[in-house]
Design brief:
Order of helices and strands: HHEEHEEEHHHEEEEEEEH
Largest sheet: 5 strands, mixed
Structural class: alpha+beta
Strand content: 15-25%
Number of helices: 7
Shape: elongated
Distance between the termini: 118 Å
Radius of gyration: 45 Å
């Protein structure tokens, strides 16, 4: 029903009827527009109300601060199956370097097994050196220490001495053949043609003066590691000499009253030593610093306990 129009009686359309119809259509259009606008408006408001909830619900999953290290650690892992904090360092054996990445909580005993797989030196025959004795065949109590307790740090150089299983078998085979008469082994005495140092005139002059009062304390037999905090003290024909070995740097500092020089261990051509008769706790130590024997520096009253370590450091194996 449209206001102002009587639809109970049939009538013919007039101008007034057309005006009435036009007004009704206009009002209906406006009403429909308002209804549609209201629906859109409320739909937008509803969407805006739910958006923060969705974002806040998704935010922890997107951030996941604690999940990153776990997944990263799982992805990284340790190729050897070790866990926990790891340290990367090197093992030096027979002038070869073997990179290692191990857990700091790994025991020396377990580490020896890994070294055996890398170098071929049986774990039971290994002697490991780092800032002192780290492991040795006659020191089973050291095997229970961890790498952390042994003070292994990043880029450390652990020195290994020992014979591989193949080398041991070769020696056994040679000795077996010698016993069977298949080969003849020359006595070591026959091979040594050099005159003993203590019998040479130039050395007897120094030795005949006796042990200096300020000689370093020495004992025998000894296979002590090289001291890292203090120098080893010996004597030349002109006075005292101090040797500061830096095996991890590959150098030795030779200090006398006349000069101080730094020498690369690999530049030393030969090492010769001999116990001093009557004072076997001391040695004559000869370091050939040049291409000929004339360049040999002879050091008297050198403590016997460090001789093996000096030879090992110079040859690339620390004894």
């Amino acid at each position: 029903v449209v206001a102002g129009c009587d639809v109970t009686q049939p009538r013919t359309h007039t101008a007034q009827d057309n005006h009435c119809s036009s007004s009704s259509t206009s009002r209906s259009g406006i009403l429909c527009f308002l209804l549609a606008f209201g629906r859109v408006f409320f739909a937008i408001m509803a969407a805006m109300d739910t958006t923060p909830d969705v974002a806040s619900a998704e935010e922890p999953a997107a951030t996941g601060p604690e999940s990153v290290p776990t997944s990263t650690a799982a992805a990284a892992g340790d190729t050897d199956g070790t866990a926990g904090e790891q340290v990367t360092f090197k093992v030096v054996y027979a002038k070869k370097t073997f990179p290692m990445t191990r857990s700091v909580d790994e025991t020396v005993g377990d580490f020896k097994k890994h070294v055996e797989a890398e170098t071929g030196v049986p774990a039971a025959a290994q002697k490991l050196m780092y800032k002192g004795l780290m492991g040795a065949p006659n020191k089973p109590e050291l095997d229970s220490k961890t790498l952390k307790q042994s003070k292994i740090v990043r880029n450390a150089k652990v020195l290994l001495v020992g014979a591989t299983a193949d080398e041991v078998l070769k020696v056994v085979a040679v000795e077996s053949d010698a016993k069977a008469g298949k080969i003849t082994m020359e006595p070591e005495v026959e091979k040594e043609e050099k005159k003993k140092l203590c019998e040479m005139t130039e050395h007897k002059k120094v030795l005949d003066k006796g042990v200096p009062d300020d000689a370093m304390v020495a004992w025998r037999p000894g296979q002590d590691p090289l001291p890292t905090e203090v120098p080893i003290v010996g004597f030349t024909g002109k006075g005292k000499v101090r040797l500061s070995f830096k095996p991890h740097e590959g150098t030795v500092i030779i200090n006398t009253k006349d000069s101080t020089r730094k020498v690369q261990l690999k530049a030393i051509q030969d090492v010769r030593s001999e116990p001093i008769v009557g004072h076997e706790q001391y040695h004559i130590l000869g370091l050939q610093l040049g291409p000929t024997e004339r360049s040999t520096l002879y050091i008297y009253w050198f403590p016997a306990q460090y001789v093996s370590a000096v030879k090992g450091a110079i040859s690339g194996l620390l004894f």
